[in-house]
C-alpha cells in the first residue's frame, strides 16, 4: 500500500480462511520485500478489489483439497 492509502500496483493480495496459512504466506512474501495485503474473508477482498485496481494479469487461485 502506498502512503496515500491506495493499493500499490505491485501489491499481492492474499485470501485464506486459515489464519496460520495467511500469516505464514504474508511473512514469506514480505520477507521478499513484496507489498502484501491479507484478507481472511473473500467478501473483504472483493470490497477492496471493488475500490482499488488490483489487476488481474497475475491473479492466481491456489488452495489445497480437503
Task: Give a structural overview.
- This protein is α+β, with helices and mostly antiparallel strands.
- The chain has a domain at 12-51.
- It is built from two helices and two strands.
- The protein has helices at residues 19-31, 42-51, and strands at residues 12-15, 36-39.
- A two-stranded parallel ribbon has the order 1-2.
- The longest helix has 13 residues, at 19-31.
Count of runs of 4 or more consecutive helical residues:
2
The helix content, as a percent range, equals 25-40%
What structural class should be given to the helix and strand makeup?
alpha+beta
Q: Round the mean pLDDT to the nearest integer and report it.
A: 79
DSSP strand content = 5-15%
Q: H/E element string?
A: EHEH
Question: For the CA atoms, what is the radius of gyration?
Answer: 12 Å
The counted number of beta strands is: 2
Major sheet: order of its strands?
1-2
Question: In a few lines, what is going on in this structure?
Answer:
The chain is an alpha+beta fold. The relative contact order is 0.22.
List keywords for this structure.
66 residues; two-stranded parallel ribbon; 35% helix; alpha+beta; 2 helices; disordered N terminus
